[in-house]
Design goal:
Shape: elongated
Low-confidence stretches: none
Structural class: mainly beta
Distance between the termini: 29 Å
Order of helices and strands: EEEEEEEEEEEE
Number of strands: 12
Oligomer: single chain
Largest sheet: 8 strands, antiparallel
Length: 177
C-alpha cells in the first residue's frame, strides 16, 4: 500500500480584451491531491494497480450565474478511483545465429485496460477554466484499452562483453471510451 500527496500553487494571469471591454480572469489556485495506491504484482505477466485519490482545489475567484468573473472564492472537491490492468503478456523468442544484426529477437504483446471513475463535481459551473486541470468533468466513467507490441533485439558485442537486449520498435493501439 502506497500513500502520496501532490500539490500545486499557481497565480494565473489572464485578461480578455475586445474593442469595448476588458475582463480580468486572473486568479490564484491551490490544489491538494492525496492518494492511496495498491499494486498487485504477484505474477510477472499480469499486474493490477488500483488508486483512490481525493482532490481539493481552492480558487480565489469564480463565475456567477451569468458567467461573469466575481471576487468570490470557491472550492472544487471530487474523488477519482482508477484501476489499471496489464496482461497477460505473451512473448515469443527467435534465435538467429546467422543474422548479422542480432543473435536473438523478442516480440511481446501486452494488452491493457484502465477504468477511471470521477465523482460528480457540485460547483463545476463556477470554475474559471484557464488550464487543463480546470476542465475536469465529473460524474463520468472512462475506459481506456489497447495492446502494446514491443520488439527487442539482443545485439552481438565483442568477445568478453555481455550482450544486451534493446527495444527496437514499439507499436501501441489504444482507444478510450
Amino acid at each position: 500500500l502506497y500513500f502520496s500527496v501532490g500539490s500545486e500553487y499557481a497565480r494565473l494571469l489572464r485578461e480578455d480584451r475586445t474593442d469595448t471591454t476588458e475582463t480580468d480572469k486572473g486568479l490564484t489556485r491551490l490544489d491538494l491531491t492525496p492518494q492511496v495506491r495498491f499494486p498487485f504484482r504477484r505474477w510477472q505477466w499480469f499486474t493490477v494497480n488500483s488508486t483512490l485519490a481525493w482532490r481539493d482545489t481552492f480558487y480565489t475567484r469564480s463565475l456567477d450565474q451569468g458567467l461573469s468573473v466575481v471576487d468570490e472564492s470557491t472550492n472544487r472537491r471530487f474523488f477519482t478511483a482508477q484501476t489499471q490492468v496489464a496482461g497477460p503478456t505473451f512473448v515469443r523468442l527467435w534465435d538467429t545465429p546467422g543474422n548479422g544484426y542480432a543473435e536473438r529477437f523478442k516480440h511481446s504483446i501486452e494488452p491493457n485496460l484502465t477504468v477511471t471513475r470521477t465523482s460528480s463535481i457540485d460547483n463545476a459551473s463556477r470554475i474559471i477554466q484557464l488550464e487543463s486541470s480546470d476542465f475536469i468533468v465529473g460524474g463520468v466513467t472512462q475506459y481506456a484499452y489497447g495492446v502494446t507490441n514491443r520488439f527487442y533485439a539482443k545485439r552481438r558485442v565483442p568477445a568478453g562483453q555481455a550482450s544486451q537486449a534493446r527495444e527496437i520498435a514499439n507499436v501501441e493501439l489504444t482507444q478510450t471510451y
